[in-house]
Amino acid sequence: MSSRRSRASVSEEEINELISRLQTLLPSARRRGGSQASTTKLLKETCSYIKSLHREVDDLSDRLSDLMATMDHNSPGAEIIRSLLR
């Protein structure tokens, strides 16, 4: 089991690097500029951001479905949308 544990372990340096990279991806962290947030706060912000992205995707999917339902399926616009979804 110890060999299994050593393969799965991640160094503190690797964790810090991943946290730094994560911070660069979050809009709220970018607005803060160079100031560092605690890891806990950063992870909470990450979860909130991912949830907001899911809501946005759901909203856009609903809007696209509504748009497709109102379009003539043979229209050039419908064909463009279908080709983008492929």
TrEMBL record:
SMART domains: HLH. Keywords: Growth regulation, Transcription, Transcription regulation. One of its GO terms (cellular component) is cytoplasm. It is found in: Cytoplasm. Its main location: cytoplasm. It holds the Pfam family bHLH_ILI. Residues 1-53 form the BHLH domain. GO terms for biological process: regulation of cell development; regulation of DNA-templated transcription; regulation of leaf development; regulation of unidimensional cell growth; response to brassinosteroid. Belongs to the bHLH protein family. PANTHER family: TRANSCRIPTION FACTOR ILI4, TRANSCRIPTION FACTOR PRE. This is BHLH domain-containing protein. The lineage of its organism: Eukaryota, Viridiplantae, Streptophyta, Embryophyta, Tracheophyta.
